[in-house]
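Customer escalation, tier 2.

The customer says the design service returned an amino acid string that "doesn't look like it belongs to this structure." They asked us to rerun it and document both sides in this ticket. The original structure tokens are below, unchanged.
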């Protein structure tokens, strides 16, 4: 691709392609939900390839975003409509009150960071060798800087490297290359570095903290150097084959999504610092359960209506007047009082009969007492599900009826509004009832294995407060009788997935050491199953444990498979893990047939009734 002096002219074709694509869509025939899908799937995908190679200009970001925003709010071609919500808010994630559109600048940096990650993880590739020979012959990719005379494509990758530094973390091998004070190597917090001040300590490398004889952490030395919080975090780190990984993904592998969210977090923190707000304080928009709003069993256009109502961005006449337009602010339906959200939906004399016909008068009164549209939506989402769905449909139908009157059409009677609400509720229930039938409920109680086969249920418990946990397992035959059980405490562990991995490793070793073979394994952690089926989680914190488990599985041909089971099918192992978490670290118990009464109680309950 030829790069001229003007980057704006070079990439102007992207803007033209977005504009031509948008011009081909009939805005008037699309609901907000339809526009939302087209923007995410088509318009914002057009510049993705160029973004993966080049750092585009800010002017181009702004122009493309302006085109998309104009399309979202307009009804006709070449029509300037009021943008009721700022574009930055639309680019927020849905759980934060936005629509999840991409901030093109942040997405561009995340795509460039992926190129840097590819170079870092595959330095033997042809592209990496060419770039290494010219730009970083010492092989230290993470220390490259922008300098005069470099190509535009390499300058773009260097900017991706700067983002990569934000989320990179070193996994401890022999520790000889890791600076314990300056490198990110502790998988906790934003900096991933020790919080203990260095003072006059001369030790500098992580290798100094590892016992050269055992290959494990030197506990006494670590306790002498670091504060208690750092001691827990360090001792919970398993010693790996040293490598670097991406901290903000549970697999330890870089992804554009996690990099984009990292940049979003940094941007939000910067905005908080500039405005002087407390980083721990929650905004009013965060108080609403946005995820619950988007999970409603409603048509997308109805959910978009409720989202706009929560943001008070509906074109009510008082809202229009506040934007500086001279307009008659009286309600277009009753022509009596000023039209705001409270009057339109709850206090207008023509809407009250609609609430009464549905026997929702008490709900109308409760909603009319709320002080903002955000509080109204919060109250609606806390109603019983059937009442909540009917209330939302009534609000949407009344808004549709109000818009007809505002456009000069005849007003619908409250009987017509009521019948439309009832019909829509019925259609909605049938639609989502059919979808629910397509997803039959899974098994809720433990299922015995075939005759001649044993089943091993395992579980791990994690206590985030003190970075400790527990593990437990139960081995049963085809009649559901317990054959072997065990529980124990994990003194230090970083996360729930690591606790599940340790539980699996302890269980397999114990069962194999007792001479059992030809058994299947069940766990309630789907991530653990994925991690054992492939190497996709080998760069995570528990990666070394996953490798040890897979080695055991390959060595013993009597293990049939590792599969996922619901929590309700794994309650016995869960109870044993909780009991193990409460024990002393040195306390570890194993029980063979006959099992103790309390274990037998767990077995019977697991086999006969769902617990979750």
């Amino acid at each position: 691709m030829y790069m001229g002096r003007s980057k704006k002219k070079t990439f102007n074709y992207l803007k033209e392609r977005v504009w031509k694509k948008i011009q081909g869509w009939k805005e008037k025939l699309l609901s907000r939900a339809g526009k939302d899908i087209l923007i995410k799937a088509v318009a914002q995908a057009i510049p993705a390839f160029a973004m993966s190679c080049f750092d585009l200009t800010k002017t181009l970001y702004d122009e493309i975003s302006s085109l998309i925003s104009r399309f979202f709010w307009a009804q006709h071609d070449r029509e300037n409509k009021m943008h009721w919500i700022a574009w930055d808010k639309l680019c927020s994630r849905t759980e934060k009150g936005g629509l999840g559109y991409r901030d093109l600048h942040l997405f561009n940096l995340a795509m460039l960071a992926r190129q840097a990650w590819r170079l870092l993880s595959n330095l033997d590739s042809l592209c990496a060798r060419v770039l290494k020979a010219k730009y970083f012959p010492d092989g230290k990719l993470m220390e490259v800087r922008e300098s005069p005379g470099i190509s535009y494509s390499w300058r773009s990758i260097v900017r991706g490297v700067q983002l990569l530094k934000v989320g990179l973390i070193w996994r401890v091998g022999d520790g000889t290359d890791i600076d314990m004070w300056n490198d990110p190597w502790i998988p906790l917090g934003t900096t991933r570095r020790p919080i203990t001040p260095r003072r006059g300590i001369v030790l500098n490398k992580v290798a100094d903290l590892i016992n050269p004889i055992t290959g494990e952490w030197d506990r006494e030395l670590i306790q002498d150097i670091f504060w208690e919080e750092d001691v827990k975090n360090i001792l919970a780190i398993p010693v790996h084959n040293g490598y670097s990984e991406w901290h903000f993904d549970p697999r330890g592998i870089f992804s554009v999504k996690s990099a984009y969210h990292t940049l979003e977090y940094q941007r939000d923190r910067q905005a908080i610092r500039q405005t002087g707000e407390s980083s721990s304080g929650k905004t009013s928009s965060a108080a609403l359960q946005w995820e619950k709003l988007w999970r409603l069993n409603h048509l997308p256009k109805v959910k978009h209506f409720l989202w706009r109502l929560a943001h008070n961005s509906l074109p009510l006449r008082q809202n229009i007047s506040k934007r500086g337009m001279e307009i008659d602010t009286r309600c277009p339906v009753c022509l009596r009082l000023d039209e705001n959200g409270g009057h339109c939906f709850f206090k207008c004399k023509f809407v009250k009969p609609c609430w009464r016909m549905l026997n929702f008068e008490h709900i109308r009164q409760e909603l009319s007492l709320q002080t903002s549209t955000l509080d109204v939506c919060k109250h609606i989402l806390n109603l019983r599900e059937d009442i909540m769905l009917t209330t939302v449909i009534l609000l949407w139908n009344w808004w549709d009826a109000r818009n007809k009157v505002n456009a000069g059409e005849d007003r619908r009677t409250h009987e017509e509004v009521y019948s439309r609400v009832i019909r829509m509720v019925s259609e909605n229930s049938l639609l989502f009832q059919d979808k629910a039938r397509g997803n039959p409920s899974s098994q809720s109680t433990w299922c015995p294995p075939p005759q001649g086969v044993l089943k091993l249920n395992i579980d791990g418990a994690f206590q985030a407060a003190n970075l400790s946990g527990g593990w437990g397992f139960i081995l049963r035959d085809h009649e559901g009788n317990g054959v072997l059980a065990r529980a124990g405490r994990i003194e230090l562990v970083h996360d729930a997935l690591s606790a599940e991995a340790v539980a699996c490793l302890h269980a397999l070793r114990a069962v194999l050491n007792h001479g059992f073979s030809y058994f299947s394994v069940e766990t309630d952690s789907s991530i653990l199953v994925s991690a054992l089926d492939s190497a996709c989680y080998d760069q995570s914190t528990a990666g070394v444990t996953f490798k040890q488990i897979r080695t055991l599985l390959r060595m013993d041909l009597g293990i049939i498979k590792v599969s996922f089971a619901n929590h309700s099918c794994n309650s016995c192992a869960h109870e044993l893990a909780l009991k193990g978490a409460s024990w002393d670290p040195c306390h570890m118990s194993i029980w063979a047939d006959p099992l103790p009464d309390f274990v037998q109680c767990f077995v019977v309950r697991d086999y006969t009734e769902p617990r979750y």
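Tier 2 assessment: The sequence is consistent with the input. The chain has a mean pLDDT of 86. The first helix runs from residue 7 to 10. Sent an explanation to the customer and offered a walkthrough call.
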